[in-house]
Amino acid sequence: FTNRKGLIQVGELKVLDHPFDNFKEVLSNPTFTISLKNTIQIWIMNFIPQIVIALLLTAWFTSHAVDLKGKGFFKVVFYMPNIITAATVAILFNALFAYPVGPANDFLNMLGKESYFFVNKPKAARLIVAFIQFWQWYGNSMIVLISGVLGISPDIYEAAEIDGANGVQTFFKITIPNLKTVLLYSLVTSLVGGLNMYDIPKCFRNGGPNNATLTTNVYIYNQAFSGSYMLNKAAAASMIMFVIIAICSAVLFYIMRDKDEAKLEKQKREARKNARRA
Description:
- By secondary structure, the chain is mainly α.
- The protein has helices at about 20-25, 30-60, 70-80, 85-95, 105-110, 120-150, 155-160, 165-180, 180-195, 200-205, 215-225, 230-255, 260-275, and strands spanning about 10, 15.
- The chain has a two-stranded antiparallel sheet with strand order 1-2.
- The longest helix has about 35 residues, at about 30-60.
- It starts with 7 loop residues before the first strand and ends with a helix.
- The model is unreliable at about 1-15 (pLDDT under 50).
């Protein structure tokens, strides 16, 4: 029912009548701000090494100068972490860096150093979560990029080889420009997946310690299902993240667009307009 103050009241739960008030409360909430910063930071920390390693492995596997035996085996090994569920990996790494006894601390003890409380240190916990994201997805990015390279016409590489281009020149002058669409796909999918990160920080330390690994999706879950049941704030936070992802994706599409094609399309539109005026 609606009380005299204009609030919809259900038992002891009060929901603001004006829908935009929910967005204002979420945006002014310091915990949401922290979760958004953590999400962006963890995504950048895992995506940069992920795409760099994936490109290096792609160049290695598709190089005509390197006759690598057992390429299929190595591809399977690199891709295998992507098959394991994220929750399983998060629990595994939580055990690996357990305190005071765990494989990581056992190694430190062998070196004569004291045990380190990795999972209780904000910076260390954030780095571990970022590493898990990188380790799980670099193989997937590698497979996508390799498929893009295999779609490039071999005649281009043959012409470059005849002209005396070395491997580095071929990679940066031919492979990368022809992979622009595939790179855009990898970047956008990584952006969407990174900003929707949930299972790894949730299962690793439930957003801790001190909200160091709290992501926006974990924040949304906590608002909706962890005691407070603030479904209105969770829905508002979800809509805010949708808008952020949509804007970032549009910016990436604009930055990585084919400028020559866009210029040609603009000339065609101007030609049609001039034809109509004539």
